[in-house]
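Reviewers asked in the last cycle whether our approach scales beyond single polypeptides. To address this, we selected a multi-component target totalling 268 residues and predicted its structure end to end. The input consisted of the following lines:
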Amino acid sequence: MPELPEVETIARGLHARVRGKRIATIGISWQRTVDARSLPLSALAGKQINGVTRIGKFVAIELSGGFTLAVHLRMTGRLLVGSPNVQVHAHERARITFRDASVLTFSDARKFGRMRLLRGDAAAQLAVGRDPLDPQLTSNDLKEMMAGRRTPVKVWLLDQRRLSGIGNIYASEALFFAGIRPRRAAGRLTSAECAGLLKSLRLVLRRAIRSGGSSLNDYVDSEGKEGSFQKQFSVYGRSGLHCLQCRGPVRRIVLAQRSTFYCSTCQR
DNA sequence: CCGTTGCCCTGCCAGC
DNA sequence: TGCTGGCAGGGCAACG
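The resulting structure, written as structure tokens, was:
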């Protein structure tokens, strides 16, 4: 479910609510929630939270001692801060209890989400690519990364080892604003198209962050509130409806087993 | 190396 | 109403 804007919203909310707290205990109620490569979670006891950031689509909970607890929410994961006596709710997979008795719960209906405790350079160990909102990233970088790739540009955008944070929704939305058809081979975009694509990605992602993300089925922020960007989708989920620019029909195709939406008039 | 496919899981909804 | 098949925003391993 969550892509960059949703994870950013969650990370900011958590940062405000758990920074400075010290961990007392952690309990795991679905063992596979813990990534096989994780350091033992027993190391969490006594650690203090220095802050919460986003690395790609990971929520990165930075801890004392150089540790990071990286949480990937996948499709249905939620991280919620609760009062001391918060009930065990449906789909709860893990629970951190702080010394002040407040709790941070991880719930995940589909059990795809994972937590991984790391020490040292988290971004490197998580193998995430460049962040589209990183001001250091240029359209030239984008062009170089796509050079020679025959993969459809929409599929390329979903590869987290190149750019990180873009998922199925924002890939379609950004390509619409850039006027680029999703099936175009990534390596064949012109310099101007790469520049337009990077601009569109940033525009869409920033707008979505401002709306608190998009809520379709499961997404809520760290306080349980839904985002509203789903009301502003231009093409995503709008197959058969009219394009907001040209009034023509929005089309749905499947690329790499993912629904992809575009306007065949506005996108070339 | 590159690109594609199947699979991990559960919930929801349309259609019968 | 009840069942079933298809679908969901992600990512990884296995395969050709």
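Chain A has six helices and ten strands. We regard this as preliminary and will revisit it once experimental data from Aim 1 are available.
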